[in-house]
Amino acid sequence: MASGTKTLTAATSTEIVAADGHRDHVTLQLQNANATYLAFGEDAANGTGICLLYPGCSVRVTGAKARLAMNGYSAGQAVIGVETLEDVEYRPGSYMGL
Predict the structure, then answer these.
(1) Which domain holds residue 44?
(2) Whole-model pTM over 0.90
(3) Does residue 90 belong to any structural domain of this protein?
(4) How many CB atoms lie within 10 A of CB 87?
(5) Is the residue at 40 inside a domain?
């Protein structure tokens, strides 16, 4: 799904995508088993913001918030897929690990 990926540095806020005043859409997807907390326009921290918990979890951001820098925090080296095209929609199947 992703047009690019970013590997986060463990236990620190890492920029996933830089601010872009012309971007209107972005989808971020967790691609491995390292839960990740997201922040928009500020540093990410453990236990705050939106959490991508399981591989395949994604968040779609539109409008003014999509123009902000997006940062992630993970205890491990999370891999985040990034897609900026408007017409991409991800629909996960059932998770058999639960």
Answers:
(1) 4-83
(2) no
(3) no
(4) 6
(5) yes
